[in-house]
Amino acid sequence: MLIPLLSVAALLCAIVLSMWSRLNVGLLALVFAYGLGVLGAKMTLRQVMAGFPVPLLLTVLALTLLFGHAQSNGTLGRVAGYAVQLARGRPGLLPVVFFGLAVSLGTVGAGNIGAVAMLAPVAMAVAYEAGVPPFLMALLVACGGNAASLSPLAPTGVIAVDLMTRIGLHGYGWWNYLHCLLAHTTVALGGFVLFGGLQLLRHKPTEEESARLARLLQSHRQPLQARHVVTLVVLLLVLLVVSIGKVEIGAVALLAAVLLSILRVSSEEEVLRSLPWGTILMVCGMTCLMGILERTGGIDLFTWLIEKMSTRRTAPAAIGLATGLLSAYSSSSGVVLPAFLPILPKLTQKLGGGDLVALANSVNVGAHLVDVSPLSTLGAICLANAQGDTKKLSQQLLGWGMAMAFVGALYCQLVFGYLHLGSPG
């Protein structure tokens, strides 16, 4: 009983430190994995190393490298500059346009952090000049990025698919994405209505306001050069190949990234420096630790702890709340998903049954709805690019993020618990 207790203590320690410390929890998780594996499970170092998720590492690296080229050379920024012209001089349409743009860029591979990092500087500056409430703009940009976070073409989506495949859930990549898209679109629409979006839509700007907004949007429109066209063509080919053929996305993304490096459409050194090594290390370290927990019996004990918080009927709400509260202070993709998705099969057994896909999506949705908080990367990016009263904006983002932990629990219980929309068909 001592070894399972120590393994759960190691997991909880890693989670707590991820919330309050600057230490990369992936490093700590790897140390715990080695210690528990060798001393507790009597494994060799080579056996412990075999649990390191190399395929996941290579796939995430390939995708982030590919879209790192597109971001570094300004291709995606130019696409964004053209897309915001869709607002057509109407301030009320700006948050909606940026929401749709964040969803689109995130879906095709930029992911939630990449899309928001790319759009927030333009979006928050345009909001200030056009008289759009900064909270409304930050909310829709962050929700748009999060709505696409589980795209199978984006890093977090790849992580979720890999973790779900490990527990026997194969081929749910786009299903995860649709549930995430639905949840964040719903809360974004609610925020738009609650915080002045409808009034902005009804407001008819004067000729002077329209002309000023048109000049502002035009200033963000830059011409496409040869390297941007080449990058767009390569990205479209990747999307086409992955959509039509049953090809491993990591291999296609790596081939495309190497091709862009050969064509020198951007600085390879700059792209490599911009890779999210910290997040990649967190995911791999936590995944390795969860593998050791399974070998030492720690999974059973951790599952028992979660089981005490819920019943078969209330499991979606309990999981949505727990993952939301943890994700408000730690990484969704690097800590929460690797900690909770592996325990779901045994949790359903202990609860006497349940929809495993629904519980997996409760984890996915609950963990990401809170990521508008300034304590999360997305909220922090929007806050850093805001102008005016940033203290008020920080309080608004924090209040919204904390509230989303409870909204997420209610949403998961309604959609997955009562309406039984967890599994397709």
Can you put this structure into words, describing what you see?
The protein is mainly α and 425 residues long. The chain has one domain (51-275, 309-418). 76% of the residues lie in helices and 0% in strands. The protein contains 22 helices and no strands. The chain has helices spanning 2-20, 25-40, 45-49, 54-72, 75-83, 94-130, 134-147, 155-166, 173-194, 197-202, 207-218, 226-244, 249-263, 268-273, 277-296, 298-307, 315-327, 332-340, 344-350, 356-369, 377-384, 390-418. α6 runs antiparallel to α7.
Q: Quick summary of this structure?
A:
The protein contains 22 helices and no strands. It is an all-alpha fold and 425 residues long.
Keywords:
425 residues, mainly alpha, 76% helix, 0% strand
Order of helices and strands: HHHHHHHHHHHHHHHHHHHHHH
User: If you average the pLDDT, what whole number results?
Assistant: 89
Query: What oligomeric state is this?
Result: single chain
- Number of separate domains: 1
Query: What's the total number of strands?
Result: 0
Residue runs with pLDDT of under 50 for 5 or more positions: none
Major β-sheet annotation: none
Query: How many alpha or pi helices?
Result: 22
How far is it from the N-terminal to the C-terminal residue, by CA?
Answer: 42 Å
Shape: globular
Structural class label:
mainly alpha
Query: What percent of the residues sit in helical stretches (DSSP H or I)?
Result: over 70%
State which percent range the strand residues make up. under 5%
Based on CA atoms alone, the radius of gyration comes out at 22 Å
